[in-house]
Amino acid sequence: MSQANLTHKEAQFRTDVLSLDSYHLNLDLSQARDHERTTYPVNARIEFSTTAPEIFLDYLGAEISNLSINGNPVDVDFHDGRIYLHDLPTGEEVTVEINSLSSYSRSGQGLHRMLDTADGNTYLYSHLEPSDARRIFPCFEQPDLKAKFHVKLSAPAEWEILANQPEVSRDSSGEVATVQFAPTPLLSTYLTSFAAGPYASKSRTWTAPDGSLTVDLRSFARASMADYLDDEILELTAQGMDFFHENFAYPYPWGKYDSIFVPEYNLGAMENPGLVTFTESYLFRSAPTRAQHAARTNTILHEMSHMWFGDLVTPQWWDDLWLKESFAEYMGADASVHATQYKEAWTNFAGSRKNWAYLQDQLPTTHPIKAVIPDVDAARQNFDGITYAKGAAALKQLVHYVGREEFYAGARDYFQAHAFGAATFDDLLNALRNHTDRDLEAWSNAWLKTSGPDTLTPEIRIQGDSIESLEIHATADEEVRPHRLSIALFDAHLHRTDTFDVDITAGSSTTAISEARGKPAPSLVLLNDGDHTYAKVRFDDNSLETVRTNLSQLTGGAEEELSRAVIWTALWNMTRDGKWPAKEFIATVLEHAPKEDSADLMGTNFANARYAVTHFLPEEQRDDARAEIAQTSWNLLTSADPGSDAQLTLARSTIATLTATPEESGTERLQEILNGAVTGLQLSPDLRWSIIRGLAARDALPLELLDQQRANDNTLTGEAEYLGAKHSFPTEENKRYIFDQLLIPKAYSNAEVLKLLGAFNAPRSASLSEVFAPEFFEVLSTIWEKHPIEIANHIVRGLYPQLEMALAATDEFLSADAVPGALRRVLLECQDTVRRNLHVQKVQKGQ
């Protein structure tokens, strides 16, 4: 069935003519355990008024049995994802009632259903952003058309049955229970949420610090994962509720706060008010590092901030998607620092998350933070590094620009003015104007309506033993933005000697730092110390040499850790741009990353080094580099403190390097790790599977060992891991099988697709995969047309050839007029990645 792509123009028409009151939804999930049944009954009653007699509802259901308007049956006009309503009475209340069948999902869109192989239990959960509520019930699917939702769910009586609001009644009739939930406050369709199944749970009560409010907090997981539902989840939830209650000064408005951890999820989490969904990977089956705890904390607080920014006040249209996501990204880190033990949140943002923004912002498909979103499919593609990480970095710059308390004061005014409504960034700026004298209009235009990162480079002149002059040279694809940032000077022992708070005015190519004149000559000049702005940072020659040889000597505390994060990110940007030899970056990682106190910085930079070997070094240099990294990693792993974060981080990296090394020792050492030879290393299921995959990729895995691991991890996660490992053996038959299987629509869940793609691209078998490059372009249109867009996105990116021939082949494919815009964007990004890699490789050769 065609999936109509709602345009902004169509949405604006409905905004102008509709006044929406309520939805009354009844979903019958009582037969959900019968997996032969692919659909479930839905009754939807929608109450509204309109000034237009002709209008349409959005619906991607399987069929409609009857439709009535104000109690009168009418003919059903349902096609291409829309229900067309004709001859509606205008200027009065209208009630449309629809009985239909909706389809269960295996793609993570709509109402997802899965069977847990561990115990045979069935679980359901929904994910609807940006426009998949229409997969569950007929609706006006756009963010600004809010309504009250009256929800009933019928499901097996022994199941947990959940929605956005608290349960108010339960009618149990034999094996089936029908639960009525309290009506929601005004809510957008994409924020509705449903879940059902034999979920296990934990609970506690939160009371506001001022005693004004009490909220029930619960966390849920499927029964086979209940042991991993740890107490910290609800502790962090309570700490976040304290923080936002005090700083937003608007009482939590959604009744209850449930967090549900679900399998086969398409993304990290979703801010459904009262029933927040999280990927199950946040339930730690393996011993987690502190960095993993910090990342989960960030996500919990990110989603919680949405209860106000995004749920209470919702963007009018998806062109302001960035605002709610950037705001939540900022709040996730800021709340972590001020409300929890994970004070390193801004270090993790600067050292890893921000790399996503810099990468995305240098693609040909980059866009302004406030992008033009002509339709819903364009919105789907903008859940990217610009919308999240760059937007958050821009907000962090705004906070530094106007002041933290001033920013929060403006947010409080914004919530009060627009509660339960839809608003724009201009509305937020208007609220901020009451708390600052800064020119917010100029700031907004410079930061939100331009694309690409500025580049900041220091130029220092030394006279004798002191600074004669220090300048910042700024370049940009467009006009240089205004920046307020810190510059730090460090001595030979990498002690910070001076810090300057500097304003770079818009359009300025050179900014002189007059207060630096006469200061002692530094060993390191670090621009953007504290990571207050968003820009690529370069080094003068002396500073670069200092970093290369002495980076791990920059120690002392949280401030120095954040400085190291800024430095690591700058070095990686220089390497990606071909401005610093990849071999130098790799050597710097091997020398200094093992000494990192931050497991996040350690893990990120080891991963970047592995990427540099595979993609930035000329092919003839890669095997030697792989062997060197594998040997160094092994030495580091075997000498790491038993049971430490460093040991676990090194183990994960070492398994990857041993899988890729050309040396036979790679196989022997993987087997040693699997056999428990590394003292203090807990061999969790996830670590075991990574070793199993590595041995398979090296064609060194006995099949009985694979089957034994499958039996030991008889879970849904284990089944997906088994699928990936089974097909990681470097054979032509495996590559053929994977390629063909990925062409079959709905054959695999999103989790299984990712494991198959991992097997297709397993180390040491590139030559076997590369032969599929011409065929990929032949079946590309079919992949995109037959699969749900999220899975199609994974498959296209995963199968895209990392070969020079792909550049011309992509141009030829895109020369056709009928290429969908979303597919065009994916291909341009894949093509640019290959082009960048080839460019950097040529730089390494001196060409």
UniProtKB/TrEMBL annotation:
- E.C. number: 3.4.11.2
Q: Which residues form the Aminopeptidase N-like N-terminal domain?
A: 23-191
Spell out the InterPro entries in the cross-references.
Answer: Aminopeptidase_N-like_N, Aminopeptidase_N-like_N_sf, ERAP1-like_C_dom, Pept_M1_aminopeptidase, Peptidase_M1, Peptidase_M1_aminopeptidases, Peptidase_M1_dom, Peptidase_M4/M1_CTD_sf
What is one process in the GO biological process aspect for this record?
A: proteolysis
Please provide the record's keywords in A-Z order.
Aminopeptidase, Hydrolase, Metal-binding, Metalloprotease, Protease, Zinc
**Mind telling me which GO cellular component terms the entry cites?**
cytoplasm; extracellular space; membrane
Give the Gene Ontology MF terms in alphabetical order: alanyl aminopeptidase activity; metalloaminopeptidase activity; peptide binding; zinc ion binding
Question: ERAP1-like C-terminal domain: which residues?
Answer: 524-836
**Swiss-Prot/TrEMBL catalytic activity:** Release of an N-terminal amino acid, Xaa-|-Yaa- from a peptide, amide or arylamide. Xaa is preferably Ala, but may be most amino acids including Pro (slow action). When a terminal hydrophobic residue is followed by a prolyl residue, the two may be released as an intact Xaa-Pro dipeptide
User: Where do the Peptidase M1 membrane alanine aminopeptidase domain residues begin and end?
Assistant: 234-447
The highest taxon in the source lineage is: Bacteria
What class does this enzyme belong to in the EC scheme?
A: hydrolase
Which cofactor(s) are needed, names only?
Zn(2+)
The record ties this protein, via CDD domains, to: M1_APN
**Protein family:** Belongs to the peptidase M1 family.
Under which name does UniProt file this protein? Aminopeptidase N
